[in-house]
Amino acid sequence: MKWVLVFCFLLRCLVVPSVDALDFQIPKLVDMSGFGTLLGNVPSAQFLGKSLQTSAVYGRVPRSDLMLKSATADITAPSSGSVIYIQADAPVKTLFSFPLGGAMAIFHPERYISVISGLDTSRIIQSAEANQSATPRELIVKKGDSLPGGSGSGTYPQNVFGLRLFDAQNLCWVNPIFLSSWILDRTPPVIRTARLTKSGDSALIDISGVAARDTRITCAQGNYRIYIDAFDTIVPGSPLYSAPYRFLALLDGKSVVDSSFATAKCTEDGLSFLGNAGSSREAVIADGLYSVGTISLVRGEHDLQLLVSDYAGNTSMLKASIIVR
Questions:
Q1: What is the pTM of this model?
Q2: Do 219 and 195 contact (CB within 8 A), yes or no?
C-alpha cells in the first residue's frame, strides 16, 4: 500500500519537460508491436508457441505499451533512473489499469516514468541493488543495464517485454516509438476497411469498396463518424501487426480529422485514445475498426481523402466521391 501511495503522488506532482529532452533509447530488438495495437491483432504470430490471445482481463482495446521481442531472455535498460515500484508476476489488474506481469517502474532524471514488464521479479531487485547508490534503500537502474526476463508463464511470453512511458505533467501514456532510432521503416500501412456511420444511425457505409469500384457514395447530410481498419509493421519483415500512427481526413482538400496514437490520456473512465472518450474501448468498434473522428457533410458533391501514416511518415490513402442530398 505504501508503494501505491508514493507512486500515485509522483504521477500527479511531477513537472515534466518535452520527451525530446529524455535520455531514452529503446534497445535494438528482434521484433516489435506498437502502441495502440489491438491485442486481438497481435496473434498473427506466435512467440515460442504461445499466443497473446484477447482475454477477459485485457478486452479488445488498444494497448498502451510497445511489445518488444528480444533475442535473449534479457532486455537492456533504455534509460537511467530510480526504481519506485516493483510488482510480482500477476495476470490481473493491480496498481495500473492493465496487467503488467513481473514489472518495475523507473523514475528518470528528466522526470518521466517508464514501466518495463515481463521481468523476473526475483532478480529485478538483485539487478538494481548491484547498482545501488549511496542513498540507503535506493534502487538504481543505469542505461544499458541488462534486466532479466521472466519465465514466460505470466502475462508476457518468454523473451517478450512491455515498455510504457508516462508523462506525469499531462497525465498520459506516451508512444515511445520515436525513441527507437535503429528502426528503418519504408513500408506504408495497409488500409483494410474504411467506413462512415451517420450520427444516430447504426448503418455503415463502406468507403473502401466504393473506392475500389471508382464509384460515388450517395448519402443524407449530417455528421458522420469515420472508422478505419488498418495495420502497419514496424520492423521490416515482421509478421507482427501494429497500429498505424496517424489518421488524417481531407474533405474537399481541407483537413477535418487529424488524430494519432501519440498518447493515451488518463481520464476518470480509463484511457482515451485517438481523442475518444475513456474508456479505451470507445476507440474501437466490435469488429476491430478504429474510431478516428467525425466529419460534417452538407448538401452537394464532395471529395473525401483518408490518409493513414506510420511514425516514419509512410502513407496510404483512400479516395471517395460523395453526393450529399
A1: 0.83
A2: no
Residue 43 burial (CB < 10 Å; 0-12/13-18/19+)?
Answer: middle
Strand partners, 87: 103
Q: Which of 123, 150, 179 is the last residue of a domain?
A: 179
The three three-digit cell numbers of residue 196, written as one number = 462512415
Number of structural domains the chain divides into: 2
- For 54, other C-beta atoms within 10 Å of its C-beta total 15
Model pLDDT for residues 190-203, shown as the tens digit of each residue = 999 999 999 888 77
Q: How far is CA 318 from CA 2, 36, 247, 299, 315, in A?
A: 52, 21, 12, 22, 10
* CATH code: domain of residue 211: 2.60.40.10
| Cell representation of residue 279 | 474508456
- Strand 113-117 vs strand 160-167: parallel, antiparallel, or unpaired? antiparallel
> 210 and 174 in one domain?
no
Does residue 11 share a domain with residue 143?
yes
